[in-house]
Write a structure and sequence with these properties.
The protein is α+β, with helices and mostly antiparallel strands. It has one domain (10-68). It has two helices and four strands; from the N terminus they run αββββα. The protein has helices at 10-15, 54-68, and strands spanning 25-26, 31-34, 41-45, 48-50. The chain has a four-stranded antiparallel beta sheet with strand order 1-2-3-4, with no helix packed on it. It is elongated and about 40 Å long. 9% of the residues are buried. The chain binds zinc ion (ZN). Residues 9, 12, 17-18, 35, 37-38, 40 line the site of zinc ion (ZN).
């Protein structure tokens, strides 16, 4: 049973994460993927891939909700007129 996420792969520590570019997805704002070695989430920044901040994670969640059209109970007049 593989360890899940808690321990960063030693190679990731030394060289940085290994983004799975083929599996990258655009959430309407940024590209997201996971590290091939340790499965850590990664977001694409101007200089390359980096681990997301809490702010990024929250924005990503909101973007996904908007894409699925599941946003029901928050706000209202942002969408259309
Ligand atoms: Zn990694």
């Amino acid at each position: 049973m593989p360890q899940h996420g808690a321990v960063m792969n030693i190679l990731c520590k030394m060289r940085g994460h290994l983004p799975d570019r083929g599996g990258a997805r655009h959430d309407g704002q940024d590209y997201w993927t996971a590290c091939k070695r340790c499965a850590a989430p990664l977001i694409r920044d101007l200089d390359g891939w980096r681990p997301p901040t809490d702010h990024d994670v929250r924005a990503h969640g909101l973007n996904l909700v908007e894409q699925r059209g599941l946003s029901g109970s928050q706000g209202g007049d942002a969408a259309s007129a």
